[in-house]
UniProtKB/TrEMBL annotation:
<dbReference type="InterPro" id="IPR013201">
    <property type="entry name" value="Prot_inhib_I29"/>
</dbReference>
<feature type="domain" description="Cathepsin propeptide inhibitor">
    <location>
        <begin position="42"/>
        <end position="99"/>
    </location>
</feature>
<comment type="function">
    <text>May have a specific function in the mechanism or regulation of T-cell cytolytic activity.</text>
</comment>
<dbReference type="GO" id="GO:0005783">
    <property type="term" value="C:endoplasmic reticulum"/>
</dbReference>
<dbReference type="GO" id="GO:0006508">
    <property type="term" value="P:proteolysis"/>
</dbReference>
<dbReference type="Pfam" id="PF00112">
    <property type="entry name" value="Peptidase_C1"/>
</dbReference>
<dbReference type="InterPro" id="IPR038765">
    <property type="entry name" value="Papain-like_cys_pep_sf"/>
</dbReference>
<dbReference type="InterPro" id="IPR039417">
    <property type="entry name" value="Peptidase_C1A_papain-like"/>
</dbReference>
<protein>
    <recommendedName>
        <fullName>Cathepsin W</fullName>
    </recommendedName>
</protein>
<dbReference type="InterPro" id="IPR000668">
    <property type="entry name" value="Peptidase_C1A_C"/>
</dbReference>
<dbReference type="GO" id="GO:0008234">
    <property type="term" value="F:cysteine-type peptidase activity"/>
</dbReference>
<keyword id="KW-0325">Glycoprotein</keyword>
<keyword id="KW-0378">Hydrolase</keyword>
<dbReference type="Pfam" id="PF08246">
    <property type="entry name" value="Inhibitor_I29"/>
</dbReference>
<keyword id="KW-0732">Signal</keyword>
<comment type="similarity">
    <text>Belongs to the peptidase C1 family.</text>
</comment>
<dbReference type="InterPro" id="IPR025660">
    <property type="entry name" value="Pept_his_AS"/>
</dbReference>
Length: 376
């Protein structure tokens, strides 16, 4: 009978440990994890993320998908050039198709509103601070949300943008209603997908947004069930703009005005655990963007082991410390995912298409229109 590794060892290698342990363990198996060991890890996954399946056939199917995803995480670990770690996540029992249908959104081919990119002369030539993290400001960033099985990343990113800008501008913390954006959306498809600009247009059409406590998130949409007129508005916007597709200017706007929504390729996020993702156009196509998130900061972190490529190819040589510039992004998949709901992308290489649609609202109190009367 083949020996099986203790569960505690599997935990260290497949859950908490870096890719070095995952890779070493999986390569020791031929051709992959032994059935008993894999089942033990799968049981751990079920307990950790509260998963249960309706029948043995479904359980067997999810086990196969889980094994495939662990192997994919290993490949991602070997390909990444940053400090990111990939492994077991809340999505490890989902296929790529299932994951994309639930957590992505429609592609933006030919559906971008006719709006020019903002060219701010005041931003040209301005220096950018070395770090910026709006999470450290009081009353700016709301808690991590979980879209669950509602395909509404676009609405949650837009809501986070409005909340942050309202807090910065008026020094008053607000949480706006994502559900109102879904129920009252005229352009998107609610939980079936949409874009950030759909959400902003809805806010403009409704003359503001209700609060999240009054109009709470349900994770579903009822047709013709818009309750926008029922509740008091807590935040408004004057309009929204698209920034230039330049990371230096995006960083400057982020540092001087506040968080920005961006839409990226989410292909690497399914298996992501922590660290800075440094992808190539081959591993993360910047032209294919399918997930909206909130850009809340940037910085530069030290990697004691150098890049991942160096770790794989030169394990015997000492590696210099490196500074990896990164973006800090707020996701909408719950605090169990990633770095307590956040993730980091390499800054300076248009990682995963981060510069394609940088959008932000411009908040402001509603303006009372002056009545016009005919002279007599």
């Amino acid at each position: 009978m083949a020996r099986t590794a203790p569960l505690s060892c599997l935990l260290a290698l497949l859950v908490a440990g870096p890719a070095q342990g995952i890779r070493g363990y999986l390569r020791a198996q031929d051709p992959g994890p032994r059935p008993l060991e894999l089942k033990e890890v799968f049981k751990l996954f079920q307990v950790q993320f509260n998963r249960s399946y309706s029948n043995p056939a479904e359980h067997a199917l999810r086990l196969d998908i889980f094994a495939h995803n662990l192997a994919q995480a290993q490949r991602l670990q070997e390909e990444d050039l940053g400090t990111a770690e990939f492994g077991m996540t809340p999505f490890s029992d989902l296929t790529e198709e299932e994951f994309g249908q639930i957590y992505g959104h429609r592609r933006a081919a030919g559906e971008v509103p006719s709006m020019g990119r903002k060219v701010g002369s005041e931003e040209q030539g301005e220096s950018v601070p070395p770090t910026c993290d709006w999470r450290k400001a009081t009353g700016v960033i709301s808690p991590i949300k979980n879209q669950e099985k509602c395909n509404c990343c676009w609405a949650m990113a837009a809501a986070g943008n409005i909340e942050a800008l309202w807090g910065i501008t008026y020094q008053r913390f607000v949480e706006v209603s994502v559900q109102e954006l879904l129920d009252c959306d005229r352009c998107g498809d609610g939980c079936q997908g949409g874009f950030v600009w759909d959400a902003f247009i809805t806010v403009l059409n409704n003359s503001g947004l209700a609060g999240a406590k009054d109009y709470p998130f349900q994770g579903s949409v009822k047709t013709h069930r818009c309750l926008a007129k029922k509740y008091k508005k807590v935040a408004w916007i004057q309009d929204f703009i698209m920034l230039q597709d330049d990371e230096q200017r995006i960083a400057h706007h982020l540092a001087t005005h506040g968080p920005i929504t961006v839409t990226i390729n989410m292909i690497l996020l399914k298996q992501y655990k922590k660290g800075v993702i440094k992808a190539t156009p081959t591993t993360c196509d910047p032209k294919h963007v399918d997930h909206s998130v909130l850009l809340v900061g940037f910085g530069g972190g030290h990697s004691e082991e150098g890049t991942r490529a160096e770790t794989v190819s030169a394990q015997s040589r000492p590696r210099p410390r490196r500074t990896i510039p990164y973006w800090i992004l707020k996701n909408s998949w719950g605090a169990q995912w990633g770095e307590k709901g956040y993730f980091r992308l390499h800054r300076g290489s248009n990682a995963c298409g981060i510069t394609k649609y940088p959008l932000t609202a411009r908040v402001g109190q509603p303006v009372r229109k002056r009545l016009v009367s005919c002279p007599r």
